[in-house]
Amino acid sequence: MEQKKCPSCSWVNSDTFNFCPNCGKRLKKVPPSTSISIQLGIYLISLLFPPWGLVSAFKYLFQKEEKAKVVGMVALILTIASLGFSMWLATQLLASPFFNQMMTQVDQLQRIGY
Ligand SMILES: [Zn+2]
Asked: What region does 88 belong to: left with phi over 0, alpha with psi -120 to 50, or beta?
């Protein structure tokens, strides 16, 4: 069994301890929560704000816990789906007659001298 000295009081602890039993200092990072409300929050962020969703997706993907990895994986898939949809929407907009009309108008304005 590995041993680890507490950075706060130098008490020698087992490496498996999350908190120092002598002074109560946190020895390990507590793994991120995988509660339903946290999951929903992450999925929602992944869908609405893809870049931020990616951050939490990777945070969860690199956890040891199987459940946290699944959360990270779902968040990653949602982020990619959301990005794909945004790109599809952008191409649809660029190909739409409305956009062409707008560009023609801008072109005409430029010819007049604006
Ligand atoms: Zn301590």
From this structure: alpha
- How far apart CA 105 and CA 58 sit, in angstroms, is 45
Q: How far is the CA of 22 from the centre of ligand 1 (A)?
A: 5
29 burial level (CB within 10 Å; 0-12, 13-18, 19+): exposed
**Tens-place pLDDT, residues 26-60:** 887 777 788 999 999 999 999 998 888 888 899 99
Q: How far apart are CA 83 and CA 22, in angstroms?
A: 49
Ligand 1 centre distance from Cα of residue 104 (Å): 71
- CA of 28 relative to ligand 1 center, distance in Å: 12
Q: Which residue has the tokens 């041993």?
A: 3
Specify the pTM.
0.59
